Amino acid sequence: MQIVTTREFRANQKKYFEMAETETILVSRRNAAPIMVCAVREGDFPSKEELAAIQRGIDDVRNGNTFRMAKNESLGDFLNRIEDEGNV
Predict the structure, then answer these.
(1) What does the DSSP 8-state code read for residue 72?
(2) CA distance 61 to 21
(3) Helix (H) or strand (E) holding 2
(4) Are 68 and 75 in contact (CB under 8 A)?
(5) Distance between CA 36 and CA 52 in Å, rounded?
(6) Is residue 67 within 8 Å of residue 86, measured between CB atoms?
(7) Which residues contact 13 (CB under 8 A, 6 or more apart)?
(8) Which residues does 27 contact at the CB level (< 8 Å), separation at least 6?
């Protein structure tokens, strides 16, 4: 991990972008949190299938296709109940 000032980073952006492919660069800033520069890997983004599943979940919530736990119902009891009802 390299820690550099904003001035150093600006003066040598190409160098630090290339370094970020293999290590994390922290750019320190006066009176502010440092900025982390690192290369993005293929696994850092959700797949099309994962995005579609997330969208289906959002749509289910918007359409009211949700289940509520009963008052004083444990999580285990809730999961068993919705499974017994054929909802899982």
Answers:
(1) T
(2) 39
(3) strand 2-5
(4) no
(5) 30
(6) no
(7) none
(8) 4, 5, 6, 9, 34, 35, 36, 37
Identify the bridge partners of residue 4 per DSSP, sorted by sequence position: 27
Q: Long-range contacts: 2-5, Cβ < 8 Å, 24+?
A: 2/26, 3/28, 3/34, 4/28
3-state secondary structure of 39: coil
Token code pair at residue 40: 């993005």
Contact 6, 13 (CB under 8 A): no
Collapse the DSSP code of 4 into the 3-class scheme (helix H, G, I; strand E, B; otherwise coil) and give the result: strand
pLDDT in tens, 3-54: 999 999 999 999 999 999 999 999 999 999 999 999 988 888 999 999 999 9
